[in-house]
């Protein structure tokens, strides 16, 4: 365990020390320093709880990638995830929403955090629609697979597999869900919600098509190497979608961009460590229903993001809900393993 989480522990120590130093620089008091230290800790725990299903899905994709591309994702991909989604993404939202330059957005985050947080809050509706639709497509694509032969919730998953041969059924379900939610918003918000959801759907489809083209091209060049640039791109967009909820929710605890980056960056390192452990130890193979729990959690998260268009749902509920589904699937897997061991060969 220490081997897998060594770098996560190192980054935790450095991040919390940096957070304490930032708190002292901001307030000049021990109380202020401890407050920032505590907020960084809570944000790290928040990110871990919200992203555990992300680690399982990453591991599911990584196990089919070549060692070279696994290494690239777990190094460069994580760097992109930490700095891109935890720092650049919030700045980009403000740049687009406020129509200002990147440097001005950085200055705004440092000098007027209240205004920065307000702009981020106002951008929550399109983010929730985009991210929710993308994640819903990820979850539905796992269950509507005619080749899927392991079922956890038998009565439901067998039916989903049965109808998987109907072309575009996942897209239809996602669009119907988006239409239902958009009807309960006022006309202006409904238009924004629907347009952003369509972009989320198109992004998923484009990533799937582009991933297939890139990987098929690479197969011809590298004699069938699996999971190349296309899979890398898919995982990056997927990580971005998972991060929407955490980045927006972090502003409920603090409006300081740099504190958010420290806290969520620490959490992202634990997601990386969990992903490596799941791949190398073959945990997904040992616990046959663990993936199912993660993908149910993804669908639940997508619905929560849609619901947040109407009212705020505390991040602790989101995190605990996903953890509960994964925990139940793990327990079911352990029970299945025990029964299989006791049954006569």
Largest beta sheet, briefly? Answer: none
Q: Kindly provide the radius of gyration, computed on alpha-carbon positions and rounded to a whole number of angstroms.
A: 21 Å
Mean pLDDT: 77
Count of separate DSSP helical elements: 14
> Order of helices and strands, N to C?
HHHHHHHHHHHHHH
Low-pLDDT sequence parts: 218-226
DSSP strand count: 0
The total domain count is 1
Which strand-content bin applies to the residues? under 5%
Anisotropy-based shape: globular
Helical percentage: over 70%
Class based on secondary structure composition and strand pairing: mainly alpha
Separation of the first and last Cα atoms: 33 Å
Protein name: DUF475 domain-containing protein
InterPro entries: DUF475 (IPR007427)
Pfam families: DUF475 (PF04332)
Organism: Paracoccus marinaquae
Question: Could you list some keywords that capture this structure?
Answer:
345 residues, mainly alpha, 83% helix
Q: How would you describe what is shown here?
A:
This protein has 345 residues and is an all-alpha fold. It has one domain (2-340). 83% of the residues lie in helices and 0% in strands. The chain is built from 14 helices and no strands. The protein has helices spanning 2-27, 30-62, 67-98, 102-111, 113-122, 124-143, 154-162, 169-183, 187-221, 229-250, 257-280, 283-286, 290-307, 315-342. Helix 13 (290-307) runs antiparallel to helix 14 (315-342). The longest helix is centred in the middle third of the chain and has 35 residues, at 187-221. The radius of gyration is 21 Å and the shape is globular. Residues 218-226 have low confidence and may be disordered. InterPro entries: DUF475.
